[in-house]
Amino acid sequence: MEGEAGEAPGLGRPAAAKDFHFHHTDLYDSEDRLQIFPEEDTQMRREVVQAEMTNEPREPMKGKAQRDLGEEVDELVHLYGLEDDHELGDEFIDESMPRIEVSEYPPYMMMGREPLREQRDWRLSGEAAKAEDLGFGAWGSAGQCQDLREAYRYTHGHASEEYECYVIPEEEDEEEATDVFCVTCKTPIRASEKVFDEHKEHEVTPLSKALESAKDEIHKNMYKLEKQIIEMENFASHLEEVFITVEENFGRQEKNFESHYNEILETLAQKYEEKIQALGEKKKEKLEALYGQLVSCGENLETCKELMETIEEMCHEEKVDFIKDAVAMADRLGKFLKTKTDVEISAQPEFEDQTLDFSDVEELMGSINTIPAPSAPVINPQAPNSATSSSVRVCWSLYSDDTIESYQLSYWPVQDSSPGKDGAAFTMTVKETYCSVTNLVPNTQYEFLVTAQNRAGLSPASECAVYMTAPCPPIIKSKEIRSCEEAALICWESGNLNPVDSYTVELTQAETPGASGVTESVVGIPTCECLVQLQPRQSYTIYVRALNVGGPSARSEPATVHTTGSYFHLNVHTRHPWLTVSEDGLTVVRSERKAPAGEPLPSDTRFTRCVAVMGNLIPVRGRHYWEVEVDECLDYTVGVAFEDVPKQEDLGANCLSWCLRHTFASSRHKYEFLHKTTPDIRITVSPRKIGILLDYENSKLSFFNVDISQHLYTFSCQLPQFVHPCFSLEKPGCLKIHNGISMPKCVTFY
Amino acid sequence: MALKQISSNKCFGGLQKVFEHDSVELKCKMKFAIYLPPKAETGKCPALYWLSGLTCTEQNFISKSGYHQAASEHGLVVIAPDTSPRGCNIKGEDETWDFGTGAGFYVDASEDPWKTNYRMYSYVTEELPQLINTNFPVDPKRMSIFGHSMGGHGALICALKNPGKYKSVSAFAPICNPVLCPWGKKAFSGYLGTDQSKWEAYDATHLVKSYPDTQLDILIDQGKDDQFLSDGQLLPDNFITACTEKKIPVVFRLQEGYDHSYYFIATFITDHIRHHAKYLNA
């Protein structure tokens, strides 16, 4: 509103021409306007405007007037039930055309526009009426417009004489104009018309309701159409897919058939060639034999003829000659007749019945519709996290579109000594292109290969692929867990003979009201221990998994960690031989009996001179507190020491340890705070329980008499490395450690 | 009891103020110093009373000991009264530094001419706490006391004579057994007369023997190079022996190389403030 008001002076006189634009911009804000004056009586408001206008100079007024004008349009719009901004805007633009072109209403135009220019105050009503008129124009009813025009003229005439009253009839007019819709004629009408006009007998509903139901109807239909469009689109894309598939399948089949067909044709052509050749040879052979026979037959005939002629000649000869020749002739004839004349036909003219062998062709014909033997399948590499400790899931795929009836999966464990196949191979037959192979050894590599099979036969074998089973779950060393308020150090055994890739620690906050129940994981741990960060004063359940390429093992058995105070055990590896450490690792005893003869051998880890033992404190630089229960008459030393403190020296006798030593002699208690120098401290009440606060943050080590909350002494100590609690017994007796307890209030001041 | 503010200085977020008032017990104008930690702006804080040594006024402690930071952090109101009545015009009150003005010894005098004004015990245990409780944001149930030398003696006797009244007590180089030291003998005979049995009522080592319970944690720091220690004015060993017998918890720290000065106090003041805070803020 303010922004528009500021704009107003700039509009100046030509604003009248701009009015139309002004409406437009305003109309898009109509929703806001309506909220600002939701139920306000427009009449009232106009009177106010009127009053202002009379009192104020014209120029600044214009903004206000225009603003109200805008509002009025909005109201009109509201009254017509056109609440949708977009609809409204569009409609308004559309309706502007008829208004300008309508020439049947010159009086209205004159009346509407002229006063507007001459007398600014009128713009208000003029524009309002115009907008109103436009609104009616939307329904395109000439009769209504006529009525309106008359009403307008009436009000306008009055208004030019008397400002105050011009709006009132218009208001009535508006209200009357808006409300009903004739269902029969499907047209909006005024309520008054219902009574008099042709709509008298018609069914009517309120205009807004009619509009709403019409809109609903349209929306419903649109929704249906949208749904249908989506369905059709889906169907079309489906059809497209089917189309492509059909094309592919048929193409493949055609190709297949063509190759078979060509093969058969080739085979037949070859057979034809062979047969023709064989027949030719046979024919030649037979003809040659017959010809030979024919030749020899002719020769015989010649000889016979010659003999006959000779004999005939002889018959005509002299007797003497005849006899002479006859004898010779008789011999010759006798000889000739002795030679047998061959009259058997050597070659049979009939065609021998030769059977043609079409079996191979038949086979080919038969194979047109059957499938070729498959090609070798392709075995996939192992998918991550697909294995368990006793099973793997092997997958493979086909190189081509072979039809497969089954697969033969063979596998054998990879062995370092003799790689490749040996006797211990297993085979199984599966239908799918995957197989879960079970009953395998954990954390072990297996080689797999697969062969495909169908009616036509067996494919070549795939390449070998190595799959690995997941490892066995690790075993948490519950007794070696150390913790403090912020962290815990978890140790475990691998549980697998072969190395694994890494370990995962999972931790869940115990079921307490505030606990989230979320499982957190620490992954990629290369070694068998892990320092996990935790929240103070909570209980956690901890699991460990081992991982290799095959996947994670099952969870280990759970371990529980409480992050109240610091928790540690005595480290038995540091124990002086004269000391015994209890099962729970929290009590150290030096017994009364005589120590075994002979000093123990010097060692880097084990105390040999000072009868001491160390605790395994978690390596975290925070605040650690523990308590030691002592006997008032016992000689003991308690404190902290670096791990590499000389084991052949007394505790506190060097720069690597900080200790409180108590000695009790001739009924006097002596308390010494031992490091490099020994301060002179006197304590009047002997503690039975000593509290020790190790504070890495402030480089302090403090001692307390727990029972009376008394602060005994604080060392300022530089601790570049981690220290461990240390305990020494100079006389037989026992020290009991209390840890995993929260710090007493009095200790928190130090 | 109108309080007149003499000075006010901001210090470690709080205010170090000095007030003057007319003391009923001492019948003279008395000054005291009070430190109000930042915490006192929003709520009631524990009160810790400091008793100074011979010759001191309320100024020595607040200007030399450097206790403000610790008091600010622990949220303790620290009150440091003067060491004796002043300007009472008693004959001989200004003659020596270890008797009379600046040497009230925290006793209620029974002898003339001192008995009218020299009632420092009642002043520090009754009148002053009431004044403080009424006018400042302190919790009357939580108060402790400490002091130096003569004030250390004062702190010890105040705590030992009023079991439960003070949550904790500590002292720097206190006069532990005044009955047996030259300062004590001079002061006690002057203020209390010659009957030595009356002296024992103001002697820490004697008071320990009749102290009823052990719920009092006493911290004592003593410079090893303190000339008054070697002069036999302080006699801490007697006190420690008595406490050991009665099992009254004392941590006595003989600090190598330190003397009787405020430099010694400033070195260990933080330990003492923490000692009191532990009980006052428990």
UniProtKB/TrEMBL annotation, chain A:
UniProt keyword Coiled coil present: yes
Entries under Gene3D superfamilies matching the protein: 2.60.120.920, Classic Zinc Finger, Immunoglobulins
Keywords: Coiled coil
Domain Fibronectin type-III: 377-472, 473-566
Source organism, top-level taxon: Eukaryota
InterPro entries: B30.2/SPRY (IPR001870), B30.2/SPRY_sf (IPR043136), Butyrophylin_SPRY (IPR003879), ConA-like_dom_sf (IPR013320), E3_ligase_FN3/SPRY (IPR050617), FN3_dom (IPR003961), FN3_sf (IPR036116), Ig-like_fold (IPR013783)
High-level lineage: Eukaryota, Metazoa, Chordata, Craniata, Vertebrata
Coiled coil segments of this chain: 262-289
Name used for this protein in its record: Fibronectin type III and SPRY domain containing 2
Coiled coil keyword on record: yes
Organism, as annotated: Balaenoptera musculus (Blue whale)
Domain (B30.2/SPRY): residue spans on this chain: 548-745
From TrEMBL, chain B:
EC number from the UniProt entry: 3.1.2.12
Enzyme class: hydrolase
InterPro entries tied to this protein: AB_hydrolase_fold, Esterase-like, S-formylglutathione_hydrol
Gene Ontology CC terms: cytosol
UniProtKB keywords: Cytoplasm, Hydrolase, Serine esterase
SUPFAM superfamilies listed in its UniProt record: alpha/beta-Hydrolases
GO BP, one annotated term: formaldehyde catabolic process
GO molecular function: carboxylic ester hydrolase activity; identical protein binding; S-formylglutathione hydrolase activity
Compartment(s): Cytoplasm
Principal location class: cytoplasm
Active-site annotation: 149, 226, 260
The keyword Oxidoreductase is annotated on this UniProt entry: no
Catalytic activity: S-formylglutathione + H2O = formate + glutathione + H(+)
Family: Belongs to the esterase D family.
Physiological role: Serine hydrolase involved in the detoxification of formaldehyde.
Name the UniProt record assigns to this protein: S-formylglutathione hydrolase
Organism listed in the record: Balaenoptera musculus
